[in-house]
Amino acid sequence: MAYTSIVELIDNCTDVEELIDRIIANDANERGISCEASFEQMKVLWEAMLASVNNYDGSLKSNSGLSGGDAKKYEDFRRNGGGVVGDLLANLITNALKVSESNACMKRIVAAPTAGSCGVIPAVLITLYNHRKANLASFQPSLIKDENVSKDDYNFTLDDKIVRSLYLAAAVGEVIAYRASIAGAEGGCQAEIGAASSMAACAFAYLNAGNIKQIMHAGALSLKALLGLACDPVGGYVEVPCIKRNVTGAANAVTSAELALAGIESRIPFDEVIDAMGEIGRKMDISLRETSTGGLAMTPTGRQYLPKQD
């Protein structure tokens, strides 16, 4: 897609459907395929996200023994009348845990944008898909500008609209990767969970009828909230604290999008927030960038999970 800034991404677009059509067309052109083929490939990723939740096995444990079964534990807790949060947040928590635990247990996931942050976007989209399906009526988008696509008007299903939101999230993720990083080894966990949360916030705002301005404020607000987050995986495994941070990232995405949809704006433009994240990552000590030589990994309990030296 080759987007280097949010300003460039939204340049000359006043309608979000037009923006997404352009993202799809750019992706297809870059990869030498039709827009329809590009869309079908993105739909496969959406279906894989659904499968990672639907095929969750609460009996599995990771090889390290650090994770597995927490999503089932939380579901049982809710089923027995526990908790004070509403169903949407409860299911957001459950879905983020399911996908992240599936990753730790070596099951199939979508790295969006990374394996360590794989639970954020699916949790947000699948929760919305399941809980607000009736509110997401089909619509007639502007036509994808591609000579290989029929010029007849057509409606998108709910699944198709969510697939379109993934293009929006992907474009935002590309800008973050270009201007800063999406790798914990380069920028700390803010670059992984922060980027995923920002991407998810944009998708959520779009799916709730946000305009371009609101969508980009949602992305900025969510990334701002996680600036400075260290990457300190216990024992070097992408499990503790990574899995629970996926829950935090998903909740942060939804709350940030809600703020933006209410008209609350980020005082710092999105591109500048991304640049600040990149600067913070570069200044972050190497021990807090996925080396497991600082932070939680070096607590007395964390040290117990370090690989044994021969």
UniProtKB/TrEMBL annotation:
Organism for this UniProt entry: Lachnospira multipara
Catalytic activity: L-serine = pyruvate + NH4(+)
Protein name, per record: L-serine ammonia-lyase
Keywords for this protein: 4Fe-4S, Gluconeogenesis, Iron, Iron-sulfur, Lyase, Metal-binding
EC number of the protein: 4.3.1.17
GO MF, one annotated term: L-serine ammonia-lyase activity
Record-stated family: Belongs to the iron-sulfur dependent L-serine dehydratase family.
Keyword Lyase part of the UniProt annotation: yes
Enzyme class: lyase
Cofactor: [4Fe-4S] cluster
One Pfam assignment: SDH_alpha
GO biological process entries: gluconeogenesis
